[in-house]
TrEMBL record, chains A, B:
The keyword Isomerase applies. This is 2-methylfumaryl-CoA isomerase. It comes from the Bacteria. Coiled coil: none annotated. Keywords: Isomerase, Transferase. It comes from Cryptosporangium phraense. Pfam families: CoA_transf_3. GO terms for molecular function: CoA-transferase activity; isomerase activity. The keyword Isomerase applies.
Length: 404, 404
């Protein structure tokens, strides 16, 4: 038995936030059915593609689900979706969608087919205007404080962080709403907007209060870690490491290893500060880094790594994406989280187990993502009880497409 | 009634991931008690600080919780924590912690006091080595593909995205594990590591498969949106906007507005490509941007914004953190999610409601974060049933500290 065994989720989502939410639910044991428009949604062929033209990106966000291919513009197709939501039973009647503003998907309209529907709706902005990760990120100010100190232009992030955080909160909203429905029997509508997630997170991290209370805002400071001591250093052989001293133990280990205790003590005395306070380490980060840098520049990467490990210093290695993926000591290999999946349409490559490593249940083994519409027949049978000929009849009307 | 009403969570967490997980649980209705060491943990005074010296960062991640101040190095203090976990009742016996590797917090040891304990443990790496957001991010390769195309050094992210994603998954793990415990009565241990979250996310987004299947990896491409068309443009008055054309509707609106239809059509013909395919827009992003840029450079920001809005183009404005916070049309104001909180120790500033906007329940109204140890007395009374004199006796032993 899995934590979400018995939950049946209709996933009417595109791009990152919604699909990742529903994939997470599937990893926890929910039965997730993607509803795809005929031919697949706009993100079905998104880069990167495998040699055969199928999307590795789409596959990565839709594992562990089934896909049913429905003509979402026809009433007959919409009736199929309404039918999926109306399936009786405690664990049915759950919709996650980022299709906002469509009349047929309004919560009030769907309550007519499922009076205790759980609907989690992922939107752009609270006022209904559309937004995606890339148009939200620029609005929170982070691109102006990302990148080299002397950069003159904003620097976008590459990771769609707002999508991913929103997706995880959407999954949580489903499970939380279902807990409440079991207690009260009442329907649940939860709206989560990318822009809300972004601005609320900026508040949680103190960015907003800093402006309002102190009248100050975070400056661009390169690769430094704000508020404490963290800096990247090049090694003699042009590799690079990130070193972090959050606690006094980290700090003491770092200055002992680099032989900078005496000079830093003299500096503390002359400046009248105490680097045992992380605020002081942060304020004097430039001079600290200038003192530490020669130690790194005079050693090869291998020597630096061995010394950092031996001294129990908190550090990270700058790797390329390829090194992360292929190196024997890269994050992929050392996580132990990956198993090789052989996808007939995409090839053989490693796929991760869920990030939540449980001792009380066995997560589903990773497998290929479905082809769009691969499960139309079996979902019509499993969820709606349609016979093969009934499904074929429905396909003839054009409401659904059966796999060939 | 709230979705997580009846859940009682012990939050033994520092920094971002764990505290944000437990704050999210509190926003959904859980009763969350932070266990703080005497004087507060290492992150209690993290920047930014309010004028009085209290941390705005810490306050942002610990709202809606109570705080009990315990000597975690003494057996008597640890007995208090074990007592909090052993409180009878279905919704008790839930621990979230990022204190890994401490013998007294091992799951097997804690099962002796609470046989059906739910324990969600947030770690650094799967092999037990420590890691923080900043030491994980460099290992996944993103800093080498973030920032200007001609940058020679890696560019760190400023948002601790891995912490935040991990935190949201930890909250989900609590609620999911509790669902399973109610069904089976069995204890649950779930481990979530920052490094796992990072590398698994890189796999979900297709980065890993691209390396293994295609032998290619993402290149540094500045502020472009990978795989489709998205680019930032300066305006005549030196402001900046991000424009995104994910769908053909977006694309057609954009080229119609900028009057580039004919030249792009001629280019499509000459190159033998079709910009209706986002892959083609992505491949020719530089030449497309060069054609679009004059339209933006010849107009003021106000004119550009009015035209983009009128043409229903998907776009975002580059704002500073201060503009996000203070502008009447910034994300904070337009979200409608914030209420002003008057915190006696920190000042008056806006604090967000939960990002999940429900129709079926009323989220708790945001309030100040607790001072460290502010609730020691009432938690000892509520959870453990101690009288005032019993609590005072415990404080005399040094196991806990009562607020003055």
């Amino acid at each position: 038995m899995l934590p979400l065994s018995g939950l049946h989720v209709v996933d009417l989502c595109t791009y990152v936030a919604g699909p990742s939410a529903c994939m997470t639910l599937a990893q926890l044991g929910a039965d997730v059915v993607r509803v795809d428009p005929i031919g697949g949604a706009t993100d079905t062929r998104r880069l990167p593609l495998a040699p055969g033209g199928r999307s590795l990106y789409w596959a990565g966000l839709n594992r562990g689900k089934r896909s049913i291919e429905v003509d979402l513009r026809s009433e007959a197709g919409r009736d199929v979706v309404r039918g999926l939501l109306a399936v009786p039973g405690d664990g049915h009647g759950i919709l996650v969608t980022n299709a906002v503003g469509q009349a047929w998907l309004r919560h009030a309209a769907l309550l007519e087919v499922r009076p205790d529907l759980i609907q989690v709706q992922i939107g752009g902005r609270a006022d209904g205007r559309p937004a995606v990760d890339y148009t939200v990120n620029c609005e929170v100010g982070l691109p102006w404080v990302t990148g080299p100190v002397d950069a003159s232009a904003p620097v976008n992030h590459v990771l769609p962080a707002w999508d991913l955080i929103t997706g995880a909160h959407a999954a949580l909203a489903v499970v939380s709403a279902e807990r409440l429905r079991r207690a009260t029997g009442a329907p649940q509508l939860v709206e989560i907007n990318l822009a809300d997630v972004a601005v609320a997170t900026m508040a949680h991290l103190g960015f907003v209060a800093d402006v309002v209370v102190n009248g100050s805002q975070r400056l661009r400071e390169g690769n430094y870690l704000y508020g404490s001591y963290g800096c990247d250093f090049p090694t003699a052989d042009a590799r690079r490491v990130m070193v972090v001293a959050l606690t006094n133990r980290h700090w003491n280990n770092l200055i002992r290893l680099t032989g900078t205790e005496d000079v830093l003590a003299a500096m503390e005395k002359a400046l009248g500060v105490d680097f045992a306070a992380e605020e002081a380490r942060y304020r004097y980060r430039d001079v600290i880094s200038a003192l530490l840098r020669p130690w790194f520049e005079q050693r090869t990467h291998a020597d630096v790594v061995a010394a950092l490990e031996g001294a129990h210093i908190l550090w990270g290695d700058y790797r390329t994406i390829e090194e992360m993926t292929r190196s024997g000591d890269g994050l992929l290999a050392t996580s132990g989280l990956f198993t090789e999946v052989d996808d007939p349409a995409l090839g053989r490559y490693p796929v991760p187990l869920p990030v939540a490593r449980p001792s009380g249940w066995a997560p589903p083994v990773p497998g290929p993502a479905p082809a769009v519409g691969a499960d139309t027949g079996n979902v019509l049978s499993d969820w709606l009880g349609l016979s093969g000929s009934e499904a074929a009849g429905l396909a003839e009307t054009g409401a659904v497409r059966l796999p060939v």
